[in-house]
Amino acid sequence: MPSEHRDTDVLLVRHGEVVHADPEHPHPLLEDGQGDPPLSALGRAQAEAVGRRLRAAGLDAVYVTTLRRTLETAQPLIDVTGIRPRVEPDLRELHLGEWEDGLVLQRLAQGDPVAARVVAEQRWDLIPGAEPAAALAVRVRAALQRIAAAHPGGRVAVFTHGGVIAQALALATEAPPFAFLSSRNSSLSQLALAGERWTVRRFNDTAHLDDDLLRVGVP
Questions:
Q1: Domain for residue 112, yes or no?
Q2: Taking the complete model, does pTM exceed 0.85, yes or no?
Q3: CATH number at residue 177
């Protein structure tokens, strides 16, 4: 089979749990205004579990994003395999504009009216300053196509974010935008990519996480 038609096996790994934010201690922001919190102690333990799960997976490459929680989650795997991580900026988390302080879940729980609209209409871009939905879809598709083109017939691990995983699987299935938002921290999802044909092989696999590592995920 010609290499350009061979499936690329993409393991999408959601980063581990991050340090929780509160109104007095919001997440630190990068120059572009995007939140960049580190992993929590639980998140580091989850990262170790991912490393054990994937160390013998036959990976051709490991990708991370520009946000440190993805590199911190990938680090145990990098340490044991010696694979040098590649950075794919277009798989960074969706930008939530004025909500990049890490308090998304609190707003949802408190019945914030904008949060209620976000859920009802399945549109993060209702948040002031948030990234347009179409822009997110374009960059996620382009990034995964670049990865597939670089590794035809190979297997790669992509350490990324919950919103990106949801977008990627929605693109593959033509599902509603929020259909795949329930991935746990450090879970595995899997796509087979062959040109324009994207196939979902797995979603939210947490077999490597014991009960102590399976708390409800946070952004």
A1: no
A2: yes
A3: 3.40.50.1240
| d(C-alpha 117, C-alpha 123), whole Å | 8
Residue 143 lies inside a defined structural domain of this protein: yes
Which residues does residue 189 pair with via DSSP β-bridges, in sequence order?
A: 12
Among the residues of 29-161, which ranges form H helices? 41-54, 68-81, 104-109, 113-121, 133-150
Residue 161 lies in a domain: yes
The domain in which residue 90 lies consists of: 3-95+131-213
Q: What's the pLDDT tens digit per position in 154-179? A: 999 999 999 999 999 999 999 999 99
Widest CA span of the chain, in angstroms? Answer: 57
Number of domains the chain is built from: 1
Contacts of residue 61, Cβ cutoff 8 Å, sequence gap at least 6: 83, 86, 147, 150, 151, 154, 156, 157
Question: What is the spatial distance between Cα 13 and Cα 53, in angstroms, rounded to a whole number?
Answer: 11
